[in-house]
Amino acid sequence: MYKNLAAMAMAALAFSFPAQAQKAEPLKVAFVYVAPLTDAGWVHQHELGRQAVQSYFGDRVKTSYVENVPEGPDAERVIRDLVAQGNKLIFTPSFGYMEPTLKVAKEHPEVRFESITGYKTAPNVAAANARYYEGRYLAGIAAGRMTKSNLAGYVAGFPIPEVLQGINAFTLGMRSVNPKAQVKVVWLNTWFDPGKERDAAMALFDQGVDVVSFHTASTAIMAAAQERGKLAIAYHSDMRKVAPDAQLLAVTHLWGEYYKDRTLAVLNGTWKSGNFWGGVGEGMIRVAFFGPKVPKAVQVEVTNGENAMAAHALRPFTGPIEDNEGRLVVPRGKAMTDEQILGMNFLVSGVQGKIAK
């Protein structure tokens, strides 16, 4: 979707702007990364998006990034510094960057900001996110088919709705093909801490878990699964490099087209604030890179589910759904609205654990 829009608008832009305007100073575009830049994971996927912007627009833009920036006061300082450096479009892809982004944006109405995974907007702040839970549900189908112990693990970052959506969708996907499946959750209250991630995975394996999923930013859990001979769902990126035998599949995020489209909007003066939420159908979430242990029949089943999801024929949060305390939260035949999904504050039946405080 984004690719065609960007190409059409670029052609129109090149035709309509005089030669003198083409030689203007490049648009400075900056990205703030919440963890170190590695060869896989959350930050890696956004770095691929930055590279796509630089490659597509060439000398019309000048992109840069700052990595390993903690959420909170440090983020505000970094964002403010990027404004001082002349950046006119700043992407801040982490939930905890939302408030610092809004604060700096209020002081600099001439700069455009993109709060990725945030939900609050302003005249010069847009918000965008992906429906990660769609990929989680599909991964759950594969996990439900592949588990032998009927027990999966889930290493979670922070107890925000996005993470709850993932846990619940993964569990519902598992139980759609394996009603006996259970999911044990471990909360870390961090996005990136390879040591803690590894320890959590090892603890889960010791408790009988034979497939693990996670919502953190390193490859440590994949490496732990490889070491223990277990299965794991890669998140953000393909992680077969560190877990060639353990990777069941990967839920990947694709940001390049969105970043190109928003950069183009600034270049041609059409940028507007808004709140975008894209998923499988919009090309922002992909389930692929199956590992060698996954039978062809399971691969086909997951791919068919992905196609149905893209056509909006498969909606993960369709009732009946009970929480893990026995309360009916979604009646039979009803589907949760986007507003309800965005405010999710429960764990579904089949999840062992509670929402961290």
Explained architecture:
It is a single chain. The protein has 357 residues and is α/β, with parallel strands linked by helices. Helix content is 40%, strand content 20%. A seven-stranded mixed sheet has the order 12-10-9-8-6-7-15, with helices on both faces. It has a six-stranded parallel sheet with strand order 2-1-3-4-5-11, sandwiched between helices. A two-stranded antiparallel ribbon has the order 13-14. Helix 4 (73-84) runs parallel beside helix 5 (98-107) and helix 8 (194-206) packs parallel to helix 9. The two termini are 39 Å apart. Residues 15-21 have low confidence and may be disordered.
Please describe the topology of this protein.
Layout: H1 2-16, H2 19-22, E1 27-32, H3 42-57, E2 61-66, H4 73-84, E3 89-93, H5 98-107, E4 112-116, E5 125-130, H6 132-146, E6 151-156, H7 161-177, E7 182-187, H8 194-206, E8 211-215, H9 220-228, E9 231-236, E10 247-253, H10 256-267, E11 275-278, E12 285-288, H11 296-310, E13 321-322, E14 328-330, H12 338-342, E15 351-352
Parallel strand pairs: 1-2, 1-3, 3-4, 4-5, 5-11, 6-7, 6-8, 7-15, 8-9, 9-10
Antiparallel strand pairs: 10-12, 13-14
